[in-house]
Specification:
The complex is a heterodimer of chains A (290) and B (399). Chain A contains 8 helices and 10 strands. By secondary structure, chain A is of the alpha+beta class. In chain B, the strands form 3 sheets. In chain B, strands 3-2-5 form a 3-stranded antiparallel beta sheet. Chain B has a 3-stranded antiparallel beta sheet with strand order 6-7-8. The chains are: A alpha+beta (290), B alpha+beta (399).
């Protein structure tokens, strides 16, 4: 064998050895170094790393936050109503060796199945202790806290850190939704009636007030007007009295004549007269003495 | 997702991605390089003749060319709206801003470019439950950008997977937070005055959650682009809004009525008062007039009472008689007297029932008839025969 060839083979073997003794770990990865399937290092920095060829092997796992999004699940609330709930879980591998050991060699679906089961049990428990309203409003945070604190313990055994649990949707099942719509409809009808009735009430008030005010105005005006008329009458009476006191007997004669004039002799009144009356005194005489 | 597939014990979750590929490009290239170097070593050390010298010179030239080209491939540019992340063997080294940069060439260092200034958006529209257990339809739109490219690139899987929005963390968070905020508020508040408030609540809470994830994302704005009652109950809601308008209308109508009635009453009141003032003035003036007239008459009467009395009496009687139909009966005569009273009454009632003209005609008619009656004492006196005295008697006229 040629020495050159031997050198080439040796160089090639060395290069292969060098190559197989380095490996890279991405910023987004965690790696475990095994020596004959025994974990020797689970805390490997990202970048270029060295290993013993043939003796050690490397497995890599994601270091980023993973998402577990659940399928819609029905839960029973405190008042025995079903709600459809979606939730998602944000988690990441914290202790990669524990993760490897507890999930059948770092199988992510395994881990997610266990986490999902954990969440569902936790949520079922939390929902059963609350009314829908509590679940919907301010209680979301505490639901998640309740679920989180229990599941964190389990997650820790899996080498997992639960970053966040979040209910993304709480809905009624379709049948319940229909009755909700019916209630909303009747509620709006109530509101509409309320608006109309209140409007009519206000309108009636305004009208009644207007009527009251106008009646009062008219009455006040009448009072004032009668007072003024009374003043006129009183003043006139005073004037008349003063004048007629001059000769009461003549006044009565004078006034009587005025009354005759005004009451008789209009509209073709018929007068039945005796020729002996004072008025005919000359009339008769003439008739007797032609 | 690759790691969800069964039997993925050793499967690399990053194998689908170009950048982190563990067993792929860099190592292979290093291997090739090593092989080449090995050959070169062997070649130069082996042959000593000319031809091999020439060929080794050529090889060295090619090698230099290759190295220069390789070094030149380390140049890269970053746009003004981007930032570059330099990774050495997958480990984060530095963040570079806009401009021309150089890195160690390919297998050693790689660069990932992240758009940091570009505004990204996500939206979600669906029915949601409110605090009072009503259902509303709400659309939420968020504008966001990358604030911290390192966090954005390294901390979360799919921070905002743009191709499929629903797979991105940002969308998931928006969806969850929007429902949470809607669930904290009553329907009326959401549909009416609360929209801005709710949008800002969603924004704040989303930011909080994303910060908690160290996502490197920053929410710029959140808008509630739509918030209405769902179509199933829309009609009832419209009806309620209509009712609100009706209520306003009722009030406006009443106010219109009030605006008509009160000024009218004031006007009437003013007229009443003016009339009464006029009455007072008139009454007093008349009284003064009457009194003055009477006083003057009294003065003259006192001078010749008998004559004046007689004159006044006769003048009055004259006027009275002139306007009347007269029947003169001598009470001493024994003749039976027949008065056609019913006829006379009929005449007057007809007159009352008709216009003045008809009354006049009827009167004439009646007079003719009465002429025809055999009543001897019937005086044929008609209005035409009466001559009114030109001078009015000193009698007060009625008002």
């Amino acid at each position: 064998m040629d020495i050159k060839n031997i050198l080439a083979v040796v160089a090639g073997a060395l290069a292969l050895l060098l190559y197989s003794s380095v490996y890279t770990v991405d910023q987004r990865e965690k790696a475990i170094l095994f020596k004959f399937r025994e974990i020797v290092n689970a805390d490997i920095k990202p970048g270029l790393n060295f290993r013993m060829p043939f003796i050690t092997t490397v497995s890599k796992f994601p270091a980023t936050v993973q998402t577990l999004a659940s399928r819609p699940e029905q839960f029973l609330t405190g008042e025995k109503k079903y709600v459809t709930v979606d939730f998602f879980l944000k988690w990441r591998i914290e202790d990669v060796s524990a993760f490897y050991r507890s999930t059948g060699g770092g199988r992510i679906p395994d881990a997610e199945n266990r986490l999902e089961q954990l969440m569902k049990d936790g949520l079922r428990n939390e929902f059963s202790r609350r009314t829908i309203q509590e679940a919907l409003s301010g209680e979301r945070g505490s639901i998640l806290q309740g679920v989180e604190s229990k599941s964190k313990e389990v997650a820790k055994q899996l080498g997992i850190e639960i970053v966040d649990v979040r209910v993304s949707r709480i809905d009624f099942p379709d049948t319940v939704s229909d009755s909700v719509y019916n209630r909303m409809r009747s509620d709006r009808e109530r509101v509409a009636q309320d608006f109309r009735s209140r409007g009519q009430e206000e309108g009636a008030k305004i009208e009644a007030n207007a009527n009251r005010e106008s009646t009062i105005i008219m009455a006040e005006a009448y009072k004032e007007a009668e007072k003024i008329r009374g003043e006129g009458d009183a003043k006139a009476a005073e004037i008349y009295a003063q004048a007629y006191q001059q000769d009461a007997e003549f006044y009565s004669f004078y006034r009587s004549l005025s009354a005759y004039r005004n009451t008789i002799g209009k509209n073709g009144d018929v007068m039945v007269l005796e020729p002996t009356s004072e008025f005919f005194r000359y009339f008769k005489q003439q008739a007797l003495q032609p | 997702m690759p790691w969800n597939e069964p039997g993925g014990n050793q499967q690399d979750p990053w194998s689908g991605k170009k950048r982190g590929s563990g067993g792929n490009d860099p190592e292979e290239l290093i291997r090739k390089l090593n092989e080449k170097l090995g050959k070169l070593f062997g070649g130069s050390g082996g042959n000593g003749d000319n031809s091999s010298q020439n060929s080794s010179k050529g090889i060295i030239f090619l090698l230099i060319l290759f190295v220069v080209g390789w070094l030149l491939s380390g140049f890269y540019t970053v746009d003004a709206r981007q930032q570059g992340l330099v990774l050495r063997f997958g480990a984060y080294q530095a963040t570079t801003d806009a401009g021309l940069h150089w890195r160690l060439p390919y297998p050693i260092e790689t660069v990932e470019i992240v758009d940091t200034e570009q505004n990204r958006s996500a939206q979600d529209r669906n029915t949601m439950l409110t605090k009072d257990e009503n259902i509303v339809e709400v659309a939420v739109a968020a504008q966001y950008k990358v604030r911290n490219p390192e966090d954005y690139a390294f901390n979360i899987l799919n921070p905002d997977f743009l191709a499929d929005q629903t797979q991105g963390t940002l969308y998931q968070v928006m969806r969850g937070v929007a429902r949470e905020v809607i669930g904290r508020n009553d329907m009326d508040f959401i549909l009416k005055e609360g929209r801005a408030q709710i949008a800002s609540d969603i924004q704040n809470q989303m930011q909080q959650v994303l910060d908690n994830y160290k996502s490197g994302l920053q929410i710029i704005t959140v808008n509630l682009t739509y918030a209405e009652a769902p179509p199933q109950v829309k009609e009832a809601f419209d009806e309620a809004n209509k009712a609100r308008e009706d209520a306003n209308r009722y009030q406006n109508e009443a106010q219109t009525y009030a605006n008509k009635v009160i000024p009218e009453a004031r006007g009437k009141a003013a007229r009443l008062k003016a009339e009464s003032e006029a009455f007072r003035q008139e009454t007093v003036s008349r009284a003064e007039g009457d009194a003055s007239r009477f006083m003057q008459l009294v003065t003259e009467y006192r001078k010749a009472p008998e004559v004046t009395r007689e004159r006044l009496y006769l003048e009055t009687m004259e006027t009275v008689m002139a306007g009347s139909r007269k029947i003169v009966i001598d009470s001493n005569s024994n003749n039976m007297l027949y008065l056609p009273l019913d006829q006379l009454n009929g005449q007057t009632s007809t007159a009352a029932g008709n216009t003045a003209q008809a009354a006049a005609a009827a009167m004439q008619n009646a007079t003719d008839k009465s002429n025809a009656t055999p009543t001897p004492t019937d005086v044929p006196a008609t209005n035409a025969e009466v001559t009114r005295t030109g001078r009015e008697a000193g009698v007060r006229e009625s008002r």
